[in-house]
Amino acid sequence: MQIEIKIDPSCTEPKVIVQAAAMDGQLERLISRLREDAPQLLTGSREGRLELLQPERIIRAYAAGGKVYAATEEGEYLLRLRLYELENRLDPQRFVRISHSELVNLDKVRCFDLNLAGTICIRLSDGNVTYVSRRYVSRIKQILGV
User: Fold this and answer.
1) Which pick of 40, 65, 76, 138 has the fewest CB atoms within 10 Å?
2) Among 84, 76, 62, 83, which residue's Cα sits nearest to residue 126?
């Protein structure tokens, strides 16, 4: 992708022009990012305190017992969002859904173990191990270029 910026002192407000041969997924994500308002804060509660969470600190997010949790190196936080709402707020280049009830931060993955049976085991930076459900295996393989 080429990026060109022109500074014009007579311009009263920024204007973005996107030129492409066709609309694709990357272009749609770019346009949705440009249309977004200021990023919404992400908060989680732990030990009775509400804390601001930096998305890059989240290792994984998962649903259990009707609640959604975010795991960081500092501990687990209870979120007031549904998993799909959290997924919409997080960077799709960094966070990927691996099952109906779990998202992982690709920056926090130590390794992917591809089994001959077709399953994928994910070892995370905090030492936890999780598995990609069959429904999401092809998407993960596509991301990994396998």
Assistant:
1) 65
2) 76
Amino acid sitting at position 17: I
Residues 78-104 pLDDT 10s: 999 999 999 988 988 899 999 999 999
Q: What is the tens place of the pLDDT at every residue in 60-71?
A: 999 999 999 999
76 forms beta bridges with: 71
Compute the distance between CA of residue 146 and CA of residue 135 in angstroms, rounded to an integer: 16
Tell me whether strands 58-64 and 49-52 are parallel, antiparallel or unpaired.
unpaired
Q: For residues 124 and 59, is the Cβ–Cβ distance under 8 A?
A: yes
Strands 75-79 and 67-72: antiparallel
47 contact partners, CB below 8 Å, separation of at least 6: none
The Cα diameter of the chain in Å comes to: 62
Task: Classify each residue of 2-12 as buried b or exposed e, where b means 16 or more C-beta atoms within 10 Å of its C-beta.
Answer: eeeeeeeeeee
Of 112, 105, 93, 73, give the one whose Cα is nearest residue 32.
93
